[in-house]
């Protein structure tokens, strides 16, 4: 048997297209060829299980080998094999998929693990090889082994081969531009990236292990180096798994990460097929460190970790694996193509996560609260980004009080503060701090009025605040240092001033002169005598813009416009009265600077030479 012919394609340019455009990442060739070998192996196992193949299956491992001298890579399987006619049908006719035909023929049997789809994967070999050989023996009795050869043109040669064992060897003669793929570490890295969970054992070389010999002594022996775990956790039944199984699998996926908080096992077969395990990691404040950690597989073949269309944006902080044969891939199986199934899967994952969080909250609120620092990022992100998720999450989203360190749902908290923090317009005002240490003076002032203060210091809280205000009528959130406390929650009550109108005007002039700045926005306020003598605040809307700009979600206006602070002089404070009564201009200036610096210090805005001057002045004043 010997024959020469032409591969059936419509254009002479098909190979350059495959090499340069279809498979832009050259390492994909190994994934495709190993997947084909696994596919062929599963076919013969399926036929044996159905009684259509009665031979001995024997060793069904797929083997990958390098010959550096010959500059070859060989992928060998003990699968279904091919006859010469089948080579011409499946190899020479590009895009005629053997897996597709097999599925059609045995559509009533369970063939869900057959991988091949497009029939183009084999030709990715020509990205790295200037010649490819196939030596194959069909499982069918009485058939002749065949040897196919092609040098990357549309011409091929096929002849008889001496192979006696069932299966196929694909031999790649590596071109000069691709010699990197003859290095062991390079091939092993690709196999571990794409093939580490394939359902048939993949062997690459050997490894030395210790085992006991006949004399019961430890000895070193060479064993097959198995690359993959053929039964990853997500293909197993959740009822058969324990907590330690999930933790061990997480450690296998992310060896250097902390253990996760909890996880969700996905397992659905209608209206689409989807399996996987998604983990909630312990999230730090730098969200970018946690993104792009979900891996997408199709029938246990790694495809990509770019899953933004399948997984909602707010859940991209999760880690884990999703596997679905129903996710539409491009022809090179390298990335997603959008269709209705993608949206359905996206919605399903959103619902599963929301249901899981709600169940945890209802069944173990204390445990839920203990994990809130990390869980809260997922929940707030989702509430900001996804309306459907918000509708579910509003029932388990938590707010933490600085006053008692307790957690409340939004509704619980609104009920708690309604009697004390409703202003004259019947708006419930929620006070919050985003830097508790720096804003302690303002927090204490609010507490002295009987008000509660929330702790909202997370990376998403500047956006979350707006979401809460938009969902509830007559609810406002104000940062505790955005104004004097009397104006933060304006109840229409007036504190009598001890100063006359002329004294108020005089104190303003004294301050401007002492601070050498006649453009300061100074106002004299009638405040409780035990409040600060001077309070510096930034209007709430400017604080919002500033916070959103820092988090990357707002317009960075502050490089283009000046920040105008409000300075309130407490006319009822004894220090202000002392300034007015003083006949000594130097003493007046010292007191003004001291009061102003105290206000700056309370906001952590006093540093460098100004702080040194304040300390020196304080020592002189009280010595």
From TrEMBL:
Q: Which domain of life is it from?
A: Bacteria
Q: What InterPro entries does UniProt report for this protein, alphabetically?
A: HATPase_C_sf, Heat_shock_protein_90_CS, HSP90_C, Hsp90_fam, Hsp90_N, Ribosomal_Su5_D2-typ_SF
PROSITE patterns in alphabetical order: HSP90
Sorted alphabetically, which keywords does the UniProt record give? ATP-binding, Chaperone, Cytoplasm, Nucleotide-binding, Stress response
Q: Where does ATP bind?
A: 32, 36, 77, 82, 97-98, 168, 333
Q: Which SUPFAM superfamilies match?
A: ATPase domain of HSP90 chaperone/DNA topoisomerase II/histidine kinase, HSP90 C-terminal domain, Ribosomal protein S5 domain 2-like
The answer to whether UniProt assigns keyword Transport to this entry is no
Please name the GO terms that the record assigns under molecular function.
ATP binding; ATP hydrolysis activity; ATP-dependent protein folding chaperone; unfolded protein binding
Q: Name one Pfam family in it.
A: HSP90
Q: Which family does it belong to?
A: Belongs to the heat shock protein 90 family.
Official protein name in the record: Chaperone protein HtpG
Record organism: Rapidithrix thailandica
> In the UniProt record, what gene is named as encoding this protein?
htpG
């Amino acid at each position: 048997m010997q024959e020469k012919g032409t591969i059936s394609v419509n254009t002479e340019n098909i190979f350059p297209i495959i090499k340069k455009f279809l498979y832009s990442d050259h390492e994909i060739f190994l994934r495709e060829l190993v997947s084909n070998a696994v596919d062929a192996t599963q076919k013969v196992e399926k036929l044996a299980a159905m009684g259509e193949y009665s031979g001995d299956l024997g060793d069904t491992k797929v083997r990958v080998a390098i010959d550096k001298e010959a500059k070859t890579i060989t992928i060998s399987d003990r699968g279904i094999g091919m006859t010469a006619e089948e080579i011409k049908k499946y190899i020479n006719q590009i895009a005629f998929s053997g897996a597709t035909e097999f599925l059609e023929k045995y559509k009533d049997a369970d063939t869900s693990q057959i991988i091949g789809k497009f029939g183009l994967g084999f030709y990715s070999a020509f990205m790295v090889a200037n010649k490819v050989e196939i030596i194959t023996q069909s499982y069918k009795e009485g058939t002749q082994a065949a040897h196919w050869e092609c040098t990357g043109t549309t011409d091929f040669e096929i002849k008889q081969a001496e192979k006696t064992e069932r299966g196929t060897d694909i031999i790649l003669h590596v071109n000069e531009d691709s010699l990197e793929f003859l290095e062991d570490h390079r091939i092993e890295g690709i196999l571990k990236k794409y093939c580490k969970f394939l359902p048939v054992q993949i062997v690459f070389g050997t490894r030395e292990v210790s085992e006991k010999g006949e004399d019961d002594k430890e000895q070193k022996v060479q064993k097959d180096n198995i690359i993959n775990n053929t039964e990853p956790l997500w293909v197993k039944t959740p009822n058969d798994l324990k907590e330690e199984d999930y933790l061990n699998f997480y450690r296998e996926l992310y060896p250097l990460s902390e253990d996760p908080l909890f996880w969700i096992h996905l397992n659905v077969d209608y209206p689409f097929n989807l399996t996987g395990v998604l983990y909630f990691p312990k999230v730090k404040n730098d969200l970018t460190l946690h993104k792009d950690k979900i891996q997408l597989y199709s029938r246990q073949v790694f495809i990509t970790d770019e899953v933004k269309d399948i997984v909602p944006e707010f859940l991209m902080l999760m880690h884990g694996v999703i596997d679905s044969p129903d996710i539409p891939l491009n022809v090179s199986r390298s990335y997603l193509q959008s269709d209705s199934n993608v949206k359905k899967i996206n919605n399903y994952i959103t619902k599963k996560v929301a249901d899981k969080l709600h169940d945890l909250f209802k069944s173990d609120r204390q445990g839920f609260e203990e994990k809130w620092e990390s869980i809260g990022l997922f929940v707030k992100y989702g509430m900001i980004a996804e309306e459907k998720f918000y509708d579910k999450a509003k029932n388990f989203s938590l707010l933490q009080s600085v006053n008692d360190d307790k957690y409340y749902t939004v509704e619980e908290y609104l009920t708690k503060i309604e009697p004390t923090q409703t202003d004259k317009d019947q708006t419930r005002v929620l006070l919050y701090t985003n830097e508790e240490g720096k804003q302690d003076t303002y927090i204490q002032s609010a507490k002295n009025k009987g008000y509660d203060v929330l702790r909202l210091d997370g990376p998403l809280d500047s956006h979350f605040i707006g979401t809460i205000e938009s969902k509830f009528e007559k609810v406002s959130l104000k940062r505790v240092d955005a104004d004097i406390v009397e104006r933060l929650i304006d109840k229409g009550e007036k504190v009598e001033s001890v100063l006359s109108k002329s004294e108020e005007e005089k104190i303003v002039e004294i301050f401007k002169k002492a601070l050498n700045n006649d453009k300061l926005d100074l106002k004299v306020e009638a405040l409780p005598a035990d409040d600060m003598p001077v309070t510096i605040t930034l209007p709430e809307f400017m604080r919002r813009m500033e916070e959103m700009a820092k988090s990357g979600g707002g317009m960075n206006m502050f490089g283009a416009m000046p920040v105008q602070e409000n300075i309130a002089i407490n006319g009822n404070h004894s220090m202000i009265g002392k300034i007015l009564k003083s006949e000594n201009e130097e003493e007046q200036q010292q007191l003004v600077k001291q009061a102003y610096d105290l206000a700056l210090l309370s906001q952590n805005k006093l540093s460098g030479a100004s702080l040194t001057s304040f300390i020196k002045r304080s020592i002189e004043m009280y010595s």
